[in-house]
Amino acid sequence: MIFEGGSVKAAFHATKDLAIEADEHFRYTVVWVEGDAPFVCIEPWVAKNEALNTKEGLILVKPDKPVVQEVNFYLENKS
């Protein structure tokens, strides 16, 4: 599943929600699971996977000019 936008909130447990807050460049959050694995993968993305071909949404990083971004994951009590 792909969620668009920097912040995502999803049901995690009967009593908890998972909240994800990402900096502006992370425009997509991808959530996936492989088969019957006992875990899920959560990936902040700056662009969709075809962006390497279309160049849409890519961040071009210049030499010696790092780009620092932050993603925070929280478990919150359901209200």
Automatic annotation (TrEMBL):
**Gene Ontology BP terms:** carbohydrate metabolic process
| Gene3D superfamilies for the chain | 2.70.98.10
Q: Which GO terms describe its molecular function?
A: carbohydrate binding; catalytic activity
Name under which the protein is recorded: Aldose 1-epimerase
Provenance organism: Heyndrickxia coagulans
